Fold this sequence. Notes:
By secondary structure, this protein is of the alpha/beta class. It is 40% helix and 19% strand. It contains 27 helices and 32 strands. The strands form six sheets. Strands 5-4-1-6-7-8-11-10-9 form a nine-stranded mixed sheet, with helices on both faces. A nine-stranded mixed sheet has the order 20-32-31-30-21-22-23-24-25, sandwiched between helices. Strands 14-13-12-15-16-17 form a six-stranded parallel sheet, sandwiched between helices.
Amino acid sequence: MVSRSYSNLLELASGESPSFGRMSRRIPRIMTVAGIISDLDDDPADSVSSDPSSSAPRERIIIVANQLPIRAHKKPDNKGWTFSWDDDSLLLQLKDGLGDEDVEVIYVGCLKEEIHPSEQEDVSQILLETFKCVPTFLPPDLFSRYYHRFCKQQLWPLFHYMLPLSPDLGGRFDRSLWQAYVSVNKIFADRILEVINPEDDFVWVHDYHLMVLPTFLRKRFNRVKLGFFLHSPFPSSEIYKTLPVREELLRSLLNSDLIGFHTFDYARHFLSCCSRMLGLTYESKRGYIGLEYYGRTVSIKILPVGIHMGQLQSVLSLPETEVKVAELIKEFTDRGRIMLLGVDDMDIFKGITLKLLALEQLLVQHPEWRGKVVLVQIANPARGRGKDVKEVQAETYATVKKINEAFGQPGYQPVVLIDQPLQFFERIAYYAVAECCLVTAVRDGMNLIPYEYIISRQGNERLDKVLGLGASSPKKSMLVVSEFIGCSPSLSGAIRVNPWNIDAVADAMDLALEMADSEKQLRHEKHYRYVSTHHVGYWAHSFLQDLERTCKDHVRRRCWGIGFGLGFRVVALDPNFRKLSMEHIVSAYKRTKTRAILLDYDGTLMPQASIDKSPSSKSIEILNSLCRDKNNMVFLVSARSRETLSEWFSPCEKLGIAAEHGYFLRLKRDAEWETCFPMADCSWKQIARPVMKLYTETTDGSTIEDKETALVWCYEDADPDFGSCQAKELLDHLESVLANEPVSVKRGQNVVEVKPQGVNKGLVAERLLSTMMEREMVPDFVLCIGDDRSDDDMFEVITSSIAGPSLPPTAEVFACTVGRKPSKAKYYLDDTTEIVRLMQGLASVSEQAFSLL
């Protein structure tokens, strides 16, 4: 049985009347009118985490992209349309990795052709019935502002490292175009809502045209299983942070479950942006990179897309391909010409002119290649519009003319420019004949031209005969590729070049021409093994496998949405981990008689970002109010030194303090400091201090705090990426040099700390509970609040003490962490403001009780 929403569409497409019970819930099928979305927030009642739809018989994947994999042609009589699959579309090719028998695929996207509103209903029916495609119809003006002006003139240049430093260098940010982009993403979301079964379906969104779509889908279905793959580069944080809507895009992408990139560099830049702009950190577990985002793990996938082997091999077998190869052999090889091949879109990032200048340099420096080497440059039409495209065309034509005039001979032109669209078999024929393929883009997300070239050079038996190769002749190929394209890391046998260095590219061309055939054969074999196994089906299967793994625990987590507009995100928590209710804890506080309260300081009572770390008068007043209550024992547990804590909390007469993670403690202000261990031998500091000093000198913004029993290296004010990298190195360095010392080396929030072994905050909790038991004050209320991993020791002690000698089984125990994150606490509060509000509430209860005495 298909999902409820999808069956509505099937009924409509087939002309059957929809069932009575479903009519009230059906979403309008055709979105023909689109305006600017002024309010991004739907009715809160619409934000749900599941839908009571019945499950589908087969696994379903909804693939969403700007364009459907469909070709549309107007009928000769102009009455209606004919449609066919676009075999060149990646969206269609990736089905190879899904298994046709096991998976049903629905496509959502736009058509390349504009469909008149009066025809949209019929077109939708045909596409849904025949191709399982759901078209998104956009008014021409909205589409132009969304695609040609925002995507192509603002996002695309920026993602390719082009800043709009002047109006001539890419489009300046325009808020109205951004609104058009958001509006289109919302329309796409509405179309997906018509067909999705949120309990079962996977949604896979493609590329930068739809980067805010994940937010709209996550808002409607909190547990939607959602993947996103970016096919363009992701720029470094220095470039990306110039975008005025940088945080909106990052947060929208983080509403996906899995985010895919072609290369590690692109993923690294994205993670760096998340760190610098959102304060998020990532970690790698068993080979998987993940970001913790409000309790959800957003996984990062790094895998370049491949080519469709079946399509290429079928085109290689076409008779017309053989004919074209024979023509090219006659035109070039038989005349003693060596073909170098370039295949690029005519846009500013493909580096066509730089390639031509490198050829010119080759012919100047190596006259022996004149009359022999021919660069065939296939220039595909640009996908965008604008002044920059016309400039590239003019520059390319002028450079070709200059080179041909300078080095041309009767019957010989060093550059052959083909600027008319070629059929695929013709391009394949050029690949098969070319001795070397040059891909020298200055920036490109992936670029599959080298992969197509390698498979074409492998050829088949029939082409081998046309090329004059024996049945057992080893194949060979040569690649010169730019360092700045996504496929470069996977082609280790290629000659990698900096396309801006014309001399280096010219030298690479010469090296490729001079290289021994045996070396070319080895490089070709290596590339062919990779390309033939890492095809588009492998890529799609691997991505969806990881998406399924990432989403497997959706059903067992409690989810709810917070935030407005594009700041919306979903909080996902373990069912046993919940927010501490003020009413609940105040009620427990009132009805209990003996209470133990343990409080961390930094990050709990005092925000981490505060410059002045000393307690406010308000905090002192709250602590004194709690301490005056004879039913309370209040302990402040901190990593700070006892000297600092004594000074800061001198007004608190009855406050217990544990310093340096509990190594020193006192029960009240006038009591003597005690130690949990015999006085430590700190001779290890003579080893650790010079190491920390070295890292402090090389890490701007880092400091060393020398405590009585511990040394702390703090990098809170350092560059977050460099500081984190240095902290990892320092941790390894200290663990190595202190391996035989009685100390532990721990990494905390922006710190690396060395302290005596066995010292932890859990000891303070044990000491407090045992002291109260000795005084026959067995607590029936325990509150413990902290913000980082060092506080987990306290949480563990108090939760494991329930029903033990130190706590009765009826005791009210509250272990609470700050922020929603993995913790041994069972409760959380969002920030220090909520912590202070809670403590103020408890202090008010104590003050009221005190006033009644």
